[in-house]
Design brief:
Elements (H helix, E strand, L loop, with lengths): L4 E2 L10 E4 L11 H16 L5 E5 L2 H7 L8 E5 L7 H4 L2 E5 L2 E8 L2 H4 L9 H7 L8 E8 L5 E3 L4 E5 H4 L2 H4 L4 H12 L3 E5 L17 E4 L3 E5 L9 H13 L9 E5 L21 E2 L3 E6 L3 H14 L4 E6 L15 E2 L3
Parallel strand pairs: 2-3, 3-4, 6-7, 9-10, 12-13, 15-16
Antiparallel strand pairs: 1-5, 2-17, 5-6, 8-9, 11-12, 14-15
């Protein structure tokens, strides 16, 4: 019998979107003006479809000045301390339990103790205390480390994740795979968990978050990051990932309809290291798909057309994320939809 807890698919979630504005105490400090301009692009794109936004800021009055030329009619500014801007991984995960909303606040430890996370790990608690989050729905689950970018669902009881991330010894070393399955089933209401064992993007600090590699979509579709260049050092691992995806079955035993997203041409940071650019890191709402682009006209166009295959009733809204990728993340990483 299907669980009474429902973890809805992202395209079903109609609620405010949580973002965090870069500030001087984040890793954006060296290019702060450029980073603010990047967030203006995101906010403008979300405003195009009247998406509600909860924007975490270091200082409300300063943020108003920084965003003076940006549409803010649908934006609520909230002063909360943050280490960084990747709200996907420390924002609350929304589920419905016995018909009631639950906002689950899992632990966040800087992607396996790689970066400072003391402030980010308390964001949801602060938001609940301020009444921004529904206080009766808030549930403290911070004893278990779980980042929103590490899981994806079809809203029908299936969850897609990666073993490299969830089995990382610096996250939940005391849990076996079977115990993590049980934990996810109990908290999220999923009863069919697919573990992807291959696939990694160079420069990815998250230990292969699923939202950099594969995304579930309506009509039994999985969109996945492909690689056609045999000389690309990621080629073999992404090929193995594709092969494993062909073996996956849904809850009724059917194979998935696999739709391949192109891999952006290699983008390098200021130190010459490759950045983990991916088109799979898009945000979906009931109205639109907000897709990251990287100033690569042919690849950007192909990715846009590919996403339209999976979401024919959505408008695909390109958002230039050429600055966002400089800190090894993209559009989905910087956003988290919250059910009100």
């Amino acid at each position: 019998m299907k669980s009474k807890t429902i973890y809805r698919a992202e395209w079903e979630l109609d609620g405010p979107i949580l973002l965090a504005l870069p500030h001087e105490e984040t890793d954006w400090a060296e290019i702060l003006d450029e980073a603010i301009d990047q967030y203006k692009l995101i906010l403008t794109a979300l405003d195009s479809h009247n998406e509600k936004v909860l924007l975490l800021v270091h200082d409300v009055e300063k943020a108003k000045l920084q965003l003076a030329d940006c549409p803010l009619n649908n934006v609520t500014l909230i002063e909360v301390p943050t280490n960084d801007t990747w709200t996907r991984d420390y924002g609350p995960i929304s589920v419905i339990k016995h018909g009631d909303l639950r906002l689950l606040d899992f632990g966040f430890n800087g992607w396996g103790l790689k970066f400072s996370a003391d402030k980010d790990n308390l964001v949801n608690l602060h938001l609940a205390e301020k009444g921004v989050l529904n206080q009766s729905a808030y549930r403290n689950r911070r004893g278990f480390i779980l980042e929103g970018g590490s899981i994806d669902t079809d809203g029908e009881g299936t969850l897609l994740t990666t073993s490299q991330c969830l089995l990382s010894p610096n996250r939940n070393a005391e849990y076996s795979r079977a115990e993590i399955n049980e934990k996810l089933s109990r908290d999220l209401g999923v009863d069919h968990i697919l573990w992807l064992d291959y696939g990694a993007l160079i420069g990815d600090d998250t230990d292969s978050h699923i939202d950099t590699l594969c995304r579930m979509a309506p009509e039994n579709i999985i969109l996945f990051t492909g690689c056609r260049d045999e000389d690309d050092p990621q080629f073999e691992d992404l090929l193995k990932m594709r092969a494993q995806l062909t073996l996956f079955r849904n809850r009724t035993g059917e194979s998935y309809n696999l739709v391949e997203l192109p891999l952006p041409d290699a983008i390098y940071g200021k130190c010459g290291s490759r950045l983990p650019a991916t088109y799979a890191n898009y945000l979906v709402t009931p109205r639109a798909v907000y897709m990251p682009t990287y100033n690569q006209p042919q690849k950007d166009f192909l990715a846009c057309q590919t996403i339209r295959i999976a979401f024919p009733n959505h408008e695909v809204v390109p958002v230039d994320c050429s600055t966002l990728i400089k800190q090894h993340g993209s559009l989905h990483c910087s956003t988290m939809t919250i059910l009100p």
